[in-house]
Amino acid sequence: MPEVTAYAVASQTAPFAKTTITRRKPGPTEVFFDIVYAGICHSDIHTARGEWGTPTYPLVPGHELAGIVREVGSEVTRWKVGDHVGVGCFVDSCGTCEFCTGGQEQFCNGEGRTIWTYNSVGRDGVPTAGGYSTGITVEQDYVCRIPDSIDLQVAAPLLCAGVTLYSPLKRWGAGEGTKVAIVGLGGLGHVGVQIAAAMGAEVHVISRTDAKRDDSLRFGAVAHHATQDPTTLKRLRGTFDLMVSTVSGDSSLDAYLACLRPGGVFVDVGLPEHPSTLRLGSLTSGNKVLAGSQIGGIAETQEMLDFCAEHGVRPQVEVIGGEDITAAYDAVVNAQVRYRYVIDTSTFDA
Ligand code: NAP
Ligand code: ZN
After folding, report:
1. 106 CB near ligand 1 (under 6 Å)
2. Ligand nearest to the CA of 163
3. Which of 75, 135, 140, 285 has its CA 20 to 30 A from that of 200?
4. Could you say which residues of the chain have pLDDT below 70?
5. Do 35 and 65 meet the contact criterion of CB atoms below 8 Å apart?
């Protein structure tokens, strides 16, 4: 059983502390890979801080894993030692229900349901532990190939942030001739701007302040709109075909919905701690669609990685060590990160 070094929290308020966890020896169809980099997603923070309910502690978060295969089971055909691979939000599912066979393993309704990368229970009956660790054992079909042209540290955030934006942008038709707004320029948003631009859409960013204006334009947006100016959302009324909100905190849905053209679609991917309210008239007036989207399946995650490789979509990352995770959480919540913290696991054994 390989022992790996990890960073865990013991409670909602505890700082991260270094620990050792045990991974199972890879079974016949599993791989063990060395995690080289792990992204910090705001979902890790919501979970660790108990904002979505109390998780199982000690908790090792991390669902943006990029690494290198070290060991493969006797029947593994898809991977060999040395391959660059990634894992996102889930590590297993039944594989046979209509959602798994339809490429939406994140909605598995078969026995055991979707097994999340952390805060779940694995097929071995042991609580799952995520990417803030130096290695993991995963069933071969839940691993994605990281294209050679994408460095591992830059690839990590794509495993969640990338697919979470790629999937709704594709599903709802971002492309030539469409005006798309990305709301919130954080870890998810800055990847979404690049993907939507690569799909051919006219991309706008709606952010709270002007601080990230230059970055929006550099990522491929044609305009950056700051809502700190109270006239901004009024000026944007009736503008967009598609809006994707990555907002992690409380905000007003009605004001955003008013920015859609008639027939427009507002997709929420942000998961704030508190419930949101809206006036239903914000939808009926203009036949608008309010939709949600949760990550993407394995095939779509691979498609997204290949798309990003081909179109030069690259997260902008700040690399940190294991001892920096606690402070990094506060910086993410305060929107100070530019634009994704990625943990370098080689710092764990220092
Ligand atoms: P992040 O890096 O913190 O970015 C969130 C951005 O939202 C901030 O940079 C900020 O952008 C904006 N924002 C924050 N609070 C706001 C408020 N009160 N009003 C308006 N805007 C606000 O977080 P992330 O990692 O991108 O994740 C974003 C959200 O998506 C989180 O809730 C996360 O849990 C969720 N998520 C969902 C999925 C899914 O599958 N649906 C997957 C991953 C993450 P500006 O500074 O530009 O205003
Ligand atoms: Zn995430």
Report:
1. no
2. 1
3. 285
4. 1, 350
5. yes
pTM above 0.90, yes or no: yes
The confidence score (pLDDT) of residue 120 equals: 97
Residue 46 Cα to ligand 1 middle (Å): 11
Q: Going by C-beta distance under 8 Å and a sequence separation of 6 or more, which residues neighbour residue 75?
A: 28, 29
Which two tokens mark 27? 């079974």
Protein residue closest via CA to atom 27 of ligand 1 = 42
Angstrom CA distances, 290 to 265, 267, 284, 285, 286, stand at 6, 6, 11, 12, 12
Say how many Å lie between the CA of residue 77 and the centre of ligand 2: 29
Total Cβ atoms within 10 A of residue 164: 29
Residue 127, token pair as written in the block: 């609580």
Per the structure block, which two tokens stand in for 329? 């959480």
Residue/partner pairs of 15-22 with CB below 8 Å, 24 or more apart: 15/326, 16/132, 16/322, 16/325, 16/326, 18/322, 18/348, 19/58, 19/60, 21/60, 21/129, 21/133
Strand extents, DSSP E, 184-294: 202-207, 223-226, 240-245, 260-268, 289-292
Residue 243 near residue 267 (C-beta atoms within 8 A):
yes
